[in-house]
Amino acid sequence: MYVAVKGGETAIANAHRLLADRRRGDRSLPAISIDQIVAQLGLAVDRVMAEASLYDRELAALAVRQARGDMIEAIFILRAYRTTLPRFGLSVPIDTGRMKIERRVSATYKDLPGGQLLGATFDYTHRLLDPSLLADEPVADPVRKQADESAMMRVSDILADEGLIEADGRLPEDHVPGDLTREPLEFPLDRDLRLQALARGDEGFLLALAYSTQRGYARTHPFVGEVRIGDVEVELDMPELGFAVSLGRIQVTECQMVNQFKGSANNPPQFTRGYGLVFGQSERKAMAMSLVDRALRAEEFGEDIVAPAQDEEFVISHSDNVQATGFVEHLKLPHYVDFQAELDLVRRMRAEYDAKSDGNDVREAAE
Amino acid sequence: MDPIKQDGSAAVNGRKRAMELLAKASTEELQAGWQAIKAKPKVHAVRGPESGLVMVRGRIGGGGDAFNLGEATVSRATVRLGSGEIGHGQLLGNDRERARLAAVFDALRQRPDHRQAVDALVDAVESRVAAEDRKRAEQTAATRVDFFTMVRGDD
Amino acid sequence: MGIQTEIHASAYAGAFTDPVFQSQAVFRALMDTMARPGTITPLGAAAAPPAPLGPGAGAIALTLCDDGTPVWLSPALAKSSVPAWLSFHTGAARTDVKPEARFVFVEAGGIVPGFDQFALGTQEYPDRSATLVLEIAALEGGAQLTATGPGINGEAVVSPMGLPDIFLTLWAENRALFPRGVDLILVAGTDVLCLPRTTKLRHREV
């Protein structure tokens, strides 16, 4: 039996009005502006852009404000907005080798060409709460030093010169990059689709999986070959002009994770690589992504698949936090009829159980 | 070959450079440039201004085959001047008016009587962007680690 | 200037003057007509694409095509400035590989390739098939055909003029592939008649 239930419209309308009130909060305080969120909560904005898979700082900041700082809600809103826009085309692949570097560190080479550039990092801070931020105290201008603005070579290119590292990822000649926003996923995936899924995957989920590989669940002996953060140009082919033009720059974080590989029947001993590339500034996400990317290549290298991080279907099917939250949170929606049916079933089973155990009691008493 | 795209390569390079810098121009820069034009031509909309998406691609491992990284918002416009020139403007973000003005300047640049004014605007944007880039690069350079090796054992 | 300017003008001109509402009107007309095979519907909007593409087929292209729908064009359309027009206004790329096309356009009087040369979809994804937009001389006045199937109450009579002689055979073969197969949109001027793969056709017995 299906029982149609109506009602609740007034309650819902009032709940939304209450939400708007709570979002605004104390009216005697100034409302936070989108510009302020972009400028002062930039890494929250970047996370929303990365996991919504939409690069637009103003819209991401609006989503953060609308979601009252609930990141997954903000990601959800931005994803939904994205679906209303037409796609004008595909960019020319971005060239991270020509990045305007803001940070670049390597754990494998101390004196690499271009040097170790710390940039604006939380590393080496003491993680002590800073009471000076309670007030709006003046902040000193950054120090400036003569800069070398020429392109900075990737660390992977240094090892490549010696032939000790695998080449950049190649797919078959006629392979068209897959797009999970256009076609449903069919496992097993090629690496391009995996990277697209990981780039929009939940930072916490990927971080936990990456951590699990370090703790022995699919050990890969990783080193950070390089992490670099900075701006790259986004170029679009203009069919009506016959050449590509840059539309402007976006900030990305790239991680090359270098892993030892003892070799197999088909491959000599060499270093392999996991790759991470994320919108905005998000070193943790890029590093986690590169570790998970490498773990998911187990089959390619003839490694035993023994851990969750190596299980492609498990990882990719559960990495999307909008999907995950939708399915988990739907449980709070009315299941009155479902539950009524279960209640009837449990009552019946209980009655049978009670009848049976009464019978047992009688028999036991008789023996 | 597409009939719309015939052009000498020097002319293409000049136009490409101008379009890319117009994409980086601020609203203020574009509006000031427009105000400075005395004999303003008639501008007709051909397409847009409109906002949409471009799928940004990366390369596997940094230099390998392409994969789809995620989308970015893009605004674009195509305009036709009263005198017939077609101009295109396209830039990241949701600012359709900036895209429209960029398209107007792309069209104006095709007219000999406006070429100089547009190139002056474009040059000014280039200097501004270069100065900002230098400032950021210098701030980053100040965070470069200068290692010094402590005396090692044995030897 | 001369010729090149003319090509410029024809590629940039001729789109909808009110894109949002006109494309919505055309979409609605196509949806309704596809749901009621055999009915003839005015599209409610026209485009002015470069010749030899007609105003109705042009309006359908503007409404349905985008960067995710490669388009196969008949030889006459392919060598006109239709590809540039289509690319500029819809973002759709022209393909020479028939199975890659999601939409197929043939001008009135053009040769219609065999339907099975185009994408027919798969058993799992029958939607991954081509939609053929065929301009014909007229939607009425040809040999009478009886149409039956989903969306038709009993029987309908259609009499399109200008389809290839072996059309009924081609269509029966397409019908036999169900759930795979192509769908047809027949266009004359700015009127359309749709034949989804579910529609059965036979010569009308008089």
Name the features.
heterotrimer, A: 367 residues, alpha+beta, 2 domains, 12 helices, C: 206 residues, alpha/beta, Rossmann fold, 6-stranded mixed β-sheet, 3-stranded antiparallel β-sheet, 6 helices, 9 strands, disordered N terminus, PhnH-like_sp (chain C)
Topology:
The complex is a heterotrimer of chains A (367), B (155) and C (206).
Chain A: H1 9-24, H2 34-40, H3 42-52, E1 54-55, H4 57-66, H5 71-82, E2 87-92, E3 100-105, H6 155-162, H7 191-199, H8 203-214, E4 222-238, E5 243-261, E6 270-279, H9 283-295, H10 312-318, H11 321-329, H12 336-366
Antiparallel strand pairs in A: 2-4, 3-4, 4-5, 5-6
Helix pairs in contact in A: 2-4, 3-4, 3-5, 4-5, 7-9, 8-9
Chain B: H1 9-24, H2 27-35, E1 43-59, E2 66-81, E3 86-92, H3 96-108, H4 112-141
Antiparallel strand pairs in B: 1-2, 2-3
Helix pairs in contact in B: 1-3, 1-4, 2-3
Chain C: H1 2-12, H2 19-35, E1 40-42, H3 55-64, E2 71-73, H4 75-78, H5 82-90, E3 103-106, E4 131-135, E5 145-148, E6 156-158, H6 167-176, E7 183-188, E8 191-195, E9 200-203
Parallel strand pairs in C: 2-3, 3-4, 4-7
Antiparallel strand pairs in C: 1-8, 5-6, 5-9, 7-8
Helix pairs in contact in C: 2-3
Describe this structure in words.
The complex is a heterotrimer of chains A (367), B (155) and C (206). With 367 residues, chain A is α+β, with helices and mostly antiparallel strands. Chain A has helices at residues 9-24, 34-40, 42-52, 57-66, 71-82, 155-162, 191-199, 203-214, 283-295, 312-318, 321-329, 336-366, and strands at residues 54-55, 87-92, 100-105, 222-238, 243-261, 270-279. In chain A, strands 2, 3, 4, 5 and 6 form a 5-stranded antiparallel β-sheet that branches. In chain A, a hairpin with a 4-residue loop joins strand 4 and strand 5 (243-261). The longest helix of chain A is centred in the last third of the chain and has 31 residues, at 336-366. Chain B is an alpha+beta fold. Chain B has one domain (3-133). Chain B contains 4 helices and 3 strands; from the N terminus they run ααβββαα. Chain B has helices at 9-24, 27-35, 96-108, 112-141, and strands at residues 43-59, 66-81, 86-92. In chain B, strands 1-2-3 form a 3-stranded antiparallel β-sheet. In chain B, a hairpin with a 6-residue loop joins strand 1 (43-59) and strand 2. The longest helix of chain B has 30 residues, at 112-141. In chain B, 43% of the residues are buried. Chain C is of the alpha/beta class and 206 residues long. Chain C has one domain: Rossmann fold (3-Layer(aba) Sandwich). Chain C has 6 helices and 9 strands, in the order H-H-E-H-E-H-H-E-E-E-E-H-E-E-E. Chain C has helices at 2-12, 19-35, 55-64, 75-78, 82-90, 167-176; strands at 40-42, 71-73, 103-106, 131-135, 145-148, 156-158, 183-188, 191-195, 200-203. In chain C, the strands form 2 sheets. A 6-stranded mixed β-sheet of chain C has the order 1-8-7-4-3-2. In chain C, helix 2 packs across helix 3 (55-64). The model of chain C is unreliable at 1-7 (pLDDT under 50). Chains in contact: A-B, A-C, B-C. Chains B and C meet through loops of B and helix 1 and helix 5 of C. Strand 1 (54-55) of chain A pairs parallel with strand 2 (66-81) of chain B, so a sheet runs across the interface. Chain C: GO terms for molecular function: alpha-D-ribose 1-methylphosphonate 5-triphosphate synthase activity. Chain C: Pfam families: PhnH (PF05845). Chain C: InterPro entries: PhnH-like_sp, Phosphonate_metab_PhnH. Chain C: Keywords: Transferase. Chain C: Its EC number is 2.7.8.37. Chain A: It is an enzyme of class 2 (transferase).
